[in-house]
Amino acid sequence: MTDKKALIRVENLTKQFKKTRALDNVSNNIYNGEVVVIIGPSGSGKSTFLRCLNLLEVPTSGHIFFEGIDITDPKNNLNKHRQKMGMVFQQFNLFPHMTIMKNLTIGPMKLLKKSKEEAEKKAMELLERVGLANRADSYPNQLSGGQKQRIAIVRALCMEPDVMLFDEPTSALDPEMVGEVLEVMRDLAKENMTMVVVTHEMGFAREVASRVVFMENGKIIEQNEPKEFFDNPKSERLKMFLDKVL
Amino acid sequence: MENLIYNIANIFTSDENARWFVQELNNNFIVDDRWTWLLDGLWVTVRLTFFSFIFGLLIGMVIAVIRVSYDKKQDTPTQSTSQKILRFALGILNFICKSYLNIIQGTPTIVQIMIIYFVILANSTNKIGVATLGFTINSSAYVAEIIRGGINGVDKGQMEAGRSLGFGYISTMVFIVLPQALKSSLPALCNELVVLLKETSVANMVALQDLLSQALLIKSRTYNAFLPLIAAAIIYFVIVSILRWLSDRLERRLSSGDR
Predict the structure, then answer these.
(1) Burial class (CB in 10 A: 0-12, 13-18, 19+), B3
(2) Sign of torsion, CA B33 B34 B40 B42?
(3) A6-61 pLDDT, tens per residue?
(4) Tell me, what DSSP letter sits at residue B167?
C-alpha cells in the first residue's frame, strides 16, 4: 500500500462526549480506491469516527488530513472540502420539500455553479444507473426506503466526490430492500470509488471490502483484508464478536 | 340585547320600521358616499396589515435563526479565536433578541403603538408608516417564536445532509431548513396574520384612518352606532375568512410532497 497516497489521513483522533469517550486516539489512513468497511458493536465509536471524517462531528483533538490538507484547521474552508466527500446517512435525509431532481441538482447548481441543464443531465445519467429515472419528479416521501437510499447515494455522487462515506446505509431498511442498496454500493466499488462504510452487513464486508476495520470502545482493535479478518481473527474480542454476528 | 332583537324582528314586520331601516341604511352608507369611507378605511387596514406582516416575517426569521444558532452553538467545542469571537457575537445578538421578545410580548400592543407614535416618532407626519413600524415590531416578536418552533421541528439530519454536501450553515438554513420550518408553521403564521389584521383596529387610537376609525367617523355624523360598527365587523369577518381559505389552499398545495 505504500505506493498509494493516503486520501484521508487520521491522526490521534479523540472525541469526548460529556461523559463518554467515543473515540480514543485513533489513527488510520484511507487510500485512494480502497473500500474500508468498519464494523463493531453499537457504541464502539464507528459512526462517530465516520462522522468525524467530514467534521459533522467536531473532534475534541487530533487531525484529519484530506487530500493533504488539514481540515480540522479552521483556517481551511471546510465547506469546499466537504463537497469532495459524499455522505450517505442511515435515515437518508433527503430534502422532503423538493422533488428528486431538485434534491440531486441543488448542490451541483449552487455549489459547483453548474447550469441547470448540465446538472440535470448528470443527475439523469446517475438516476438511470440506479434504475430510478422515472422517479425524477416524485417527492422523497412517495418513495420506498430502498429507493430513498439509492437517491441519497445519487445525490452524493452528483457532487462528484473523491470519497463516499456511508453511515449504516442499510440499517433503517426493510430486509427486502437491503439488496438493492448494496447492489448500488457494489457497483460503485467496482468503479474504484474510495468508500468508507459503517455497516452490519458482514456479507458485504467480506465480498466488497478491501480492508475491514473492527472498532470497540473508541479504539481500532484489529484491521485486515477481509479473508484474513473473517477467517483468521487475531484478537479475542474480534473472535467473540464474529461468533455472535456470523 | 332584547331590544335589539325586537327591533330587528320589527323591521320585517311593520312597514314603518322597514322604512326606518332603509332610511338609516341610506343615511349611513349612501349619503355623501359614506360607503367609500369604509372602503378607504379598509384599504388602510389591508396595507397596514400586509406590510407589517411581511416585514414582521422577515425580522422574525432573522431573530429565529439567531436564537436557534445560539442554542446549537452551545454544544460544539470551540477551536479557534475566530470561532470564539463568532460565538461571543452570537451571544450578544441572542441576548438582544431575547430581551426584544420579552419586552414586546410583555407589553400591550396599544401601549407600544402609542409610545412609537407619541414619543419616539412624535414628529413624523407619515402616520401609516409609523403604524406599520409599530405593528411590524409587535408582529415580529410573535412570528420569531413561531418560526423558531418550526426550525426546531425540522429533523437535524436535514442540516447535516446540507452541510455534508458542502453548503454553509446559513445556506443550509435558507435553502433547506427554513422552507420546511415555514411550511410546518404555516397554520400558526396564518393565525398570526389574522390576529394582526384585527389588532390593527387599535390604530384608530393614533388617529390613523383605518376601517374602524372610518366606521366611527360615520357614527359621529349619523349618530347611529349600530350600522357602521356591524358593517365594519362584517368586513373584518369576510377578510379573515378569505385569509383562512387562502391559507388552507396554500397548505394543501405545499403538502403535495407529503404522500
Answers:
(1) exposed
(2) negative
(3) 899 999 999 998 888 999 999 999 999 999 999 999 889 999 999 999 999 989 99
(4) -
* Domain membership of residue B45 as a residue range: 34-200+208-256
Q: Which of B77, B82, B160 shows the shortest C-beta gap to A58?
A: B77
B9 is a domain residue = no
Q: Is residue B15, in this structure, part of any structural domain at all? A: no
CB-CB neighbors (< 8 A) of B171 in chain A: 110
Give this prediction's pTM. 0.85
User: What CATH number does the domain containing B77 carry?
Assistant: 1.10.3720.10
Say whether B121 sits in a helix, a strand or coil: coil
Cα first-last separation, chain A = 29
B168 touches chain A (CB under 8 A): yes
> d(Cα A156, Cα A84) in Å, to the nearest integer?
9
* Closest CB from B79, B83, B160 relative to A56: B160
Domain tally for chain B?
1
Residue B10 lies in a domain: no
Q: What ipTM does this complex have? A: 0.91
Q: Residue B185 corresponds to which amino acid?
A: S
CB contact under 8 A, B165 and A80: no
Domain assignment of residue B112, yes or no: yes
